[in-house]
Amino acid sequence: MKHESELLVYKASAGSGKTFTLAVEYIKLLILNPRAYQHILAVTFTNKATAEMKKRILSQLYGIQTGDKDSEAYLERIEEETGKTEEEIRIAAGTALSYMLHDYSRFRVETIDSFFQSVMRNLARELELSPNLNIELNNAEVLSDAVDSMIEKLGPTSPVLAWLLDYINERIADDKRWNVSDEVKNFGRNIFDEGYIEKGGGLRQRLRTPDTIKEYRKQLKTLETEILEQMKGFYEQFEGELDNHALTADDLKNGSRGIGSYFRKLNNGILSNDIRNATVEKCLEDAKNWATKTSPRYGDIIALAGSSLMQILEDAEKLRSKNNLLLNSCRLSLQHLNKVQLLANIDEEVRQLNHDNNRFLLSDTNALLHQLVKDGDSSFVFEKIGTNIRNVMIDEFQDTSRMQWGNFKLLLLEGLSHGANSLIVGDVKQSIYRWRNGDWGILNGLNDHIEHSKVRVKTLVTNRRSETAVIRFNNRI
User: Fold this and answer.
1) Is 124 helix (H, G, I), strand (E, B) or coil?
2) Which secondary-structure segment (H or E) carries 93?
3) What is the pTM of this model?
4) How far is Cα 378 from Cα 398, in angstroms, rounded to an integer?
5) CA-atom Rg of the chain in angstroms
């Protein structure tokens, strides 16, 4: 038996009917099967949006059933897309409404946080978490307690004190505020950033070895020295060639302001892109640009440029840009190493307080599920999330983070494999995550699974009036 499933993605601007579309698709599933609500998960991002979505679905079901004029747009759209008669739709709407009101707990329109919190509680036993675990929503309060506790423990020989003083001195050097407690708490917010959360486990593991930072600092300094010595080598080659032919940089075109200036900058450790100026470009193009026509050694300079100097310059330029990136990375890393240690210590303090208070941060839920999905048995995780979910509908999709998408992807793929439809709506222009691009790059995460599951892009339809785009992934199993 073959099933056809679709993942519909509506990208549209404000006021173009995204929420209307989501409500229509939800009600359409109910018209086709009045008990379909038991297998639908609709996700929003605020409690207010959740209440409004529930109210809209229920009121429109009632309006369709009773012939309310405010529900005519829904009725017409559903009639057009299902092929059912008006009478059939009205009867089905009334039936679905009755079922839902008598089985309201299974009418799942939830915020993303409440959904993942329920998943977390279902996984408490497997994760060896206490069944009486306290879910903490207020990261700022927990962070404040952790920083205060960390500062209270400081002693004259504490390594944390050195990291803290380093951070404060940097703030003073930048002419910024240096209130110890407030500034460290503001800095500590980085531990709740997804980028840190994703790498935090590996960082904590590495920092358990006392000499990790010391060794890393040593490696960075060695790399920095190697880069600088390598680029100085081009200056030495340049000067050596000139010296072997009884020439100096002043004998070349424009004298000390000419190409000799480029090599002196390399010798001084200046590798930035702005040193590749018009003079460098001309010297790379033609040997004649190395000498002034009035120079008594015009011919010798051109010959030397063609035989060796141009090659030295070309080789230097091939490495300079790459080495500039490496050098800047080394220097930035060295500059912030103590900050990494301080941040890791704040993170450790937060974790210890959470353990002592039998507390789990809601903000950690995404990361924990993400790790389980990535490293564990995804079918087991899906079973805990809820095997009864087939259709997933996400409103304001542009506000999902990378981890949230990774966790939802499991549900979407499972639904597609069973021939179910899912829907995503949002306005990319209102995205709060900088990593999102115009094509909603996070959907690219489906590519491997799409190929494996024989899911393909069928159509891309654009309605210019509403600026709505629909992407349909057809899955035939």
Assistant:
1) coil
2) helix 86-102
3) 0.60
4) 25
5) 32
